[in-house]
Design a protein that fits this description.
This protein is α+β, with helices and mostly antiparallel strands and 124 residues long. It has a domain at 48-124. It has five helices and three strands; from the N terminus they run ααββαβαα. A hairpin with a 4-residue loop joins strand 1 and strand 2. Belongs to the ARG7 family.
Length: 124
């Protein structure tokens, strides 16, 4: 018990610590962890499909179960019309990024092609 008390008293004593100044650099470990999380989000894990969306080729990773969804099939048809079937590398979708996110959210909810979704698909 005495060891535990000594340990807590050392932790509570803040006189041995100095404040960080405004010129203090961030630790390398936090920078590395941030990069690792960013890189992990961009990688396609098994069961996921990487896509480049829009003119700026924003990277999106979607689930493979969306391949049977009618909304995603329409997007793939639009990509085949524009780029053909012999694309090299990552699949490219010719769609506005915000519109693509809305359509994929609808596909993830399991919605079919409703009149509202059909109107959005006409803008692709």
């Amino acid at each position: 018990m005495k060891k535990l008390w000594n340990r807590f008293s050392r932790v509570a004593d803040s006189t041995q610590y100095s404040q960080l100044g405004s010129d203090a650099r961030p630790r390398r470990r936090t920078t590395f962890l941030w990069f690792k999380m960013w890189f992990k989000r961009r990688r396609a894990t098994p069961g996921r499909l990487p896509l480049d969306v829009g003119e700026e080729m924003h990277r999106r990773v979607v689930s493979m179960r969306l391949l049977c969804n009618p909304i995603f099939i329409k997007l793939l048809d639009k990509a085949a019309e524009k780029y053909g079937y012999d694309q090299k590398g990552v699949l490219q979708i010719p769609c506005n990024v915000q519109l693509f996110d809305i359509l994929i959210a609808a596909a993830n909810r399991g919605e079919g092609i409703t009149p509202g979704i059909q109107t959005l698909l006409n803008f692709v």
